[in-house]
């Protein structure tokens, strides 16, 4: 929906849309801003990854996106590229409502006002109670025309992790499964490297680059000794490395324990984890999250809320089967990304998912196909959760 109303509540202004139309180029410029914003995915948490372009008389003056670590914000990054006064009477295209509160920097709404912009076009609102509607109200009170809802659906898809953290208290979760054609992730002897080929594995690195954290279960940490770091993607902020083990049975050798890279290690464990393990990982600088247990093991909904409170907006889960099943059973998986290889491992192979106790087909979680793409000799397929 496209709105030019003057309501200070984004929810109300979306409901009170007028018939005013945007200019023909508005979608083109917003598409550029959205493209810029995605550069920050996985790099800006706990802040959203926002894009901004500033246009005057049909010409691009500046472009910006939220920088690694969340500062500076996209609007201020764009404004810093042009001389003072150059943006007067220009139009800014911003993918998320400009912030209106003072944190580590001054509000972006204030910066846009000071720059003398004539119009600010916003893709979607920010539900953060410190911002929601206030940024738009500040702009309008300063006499700036405000347009909302341009390419809003795409903006909300890009911002899903940030929006979920604010509205649901947890990060968005993507489950990645690399398996044989018959759904196995390892042979009967546990051999799993490599089921898929180099192009699929490179795409996994690209997935890691767009997420704040990479998460595995305790069995995967023990059997594969994964590094969970980002490789071959240039100079980017490393994702947080998360391992989930009720008893904190994580190897005290290997990359998680010995790698002194800038990639933090966060461990989710149960209340009965031995003190010796707690002391070992605490001395290594790991962040520990104690999570209650239930009949099916660790309460992953509680764990996800804790990770959201710690600032994460996007998590990539890379298995194993038990962790994947627990996330699915708790309704915590928002996207599936499968890499399927043309190899058969048979019933003796390790299945990609642990037990899911659904008495009827209708009870099983459903996902809708978004994309299918060839990756060398493998196939990548992306799915998103079907709203119930």
Word description of this protein:
With 388 residues, the chain is of the alpha/beta class. It folds into 2 domains: 24-163, Cytidine Deaminase, domain 2, CATH 3.40.140.10; 170-385, Dihydrofolate Reductase, subunit A (3-Layer(aba) Sandwich), CATH 3.40.430.10. It is built from 13 helices and 18 strands. It has helices at residues 10-15, 26-37, 74-79, 108-114, 134-141, 152-158, 160-167, 198-209, 218-224, 255-258, 275-283, 300-309, 321-329, and strands spanning 51-56, 59-65, 91-94, 119-122, 145-148, 172-180, 184-186, 213-217, 240-244, 265-269, 287-290, 293-294, 297-298, 314-317, 335-341, 350-351, 367-375, 378-385. Strands 11-10-9-8-14-6-15-18-17 form a 9-stranded mixed sheet, sandwiched between helices. The protein has a 5-stranded mixed sheet with strand order 2-1-3-4-5, sandwiched between helices. The protein has a two-stranded antiparallel ribbon with strand order 7-16. Helix 4 links the parallel strand 3 (91-94) and strand 4 (119-122). The longest helix has 12 residues, at 26-37. In the N-terminal section; belongs to the cytidine and deoxycytidylate deaminase family.
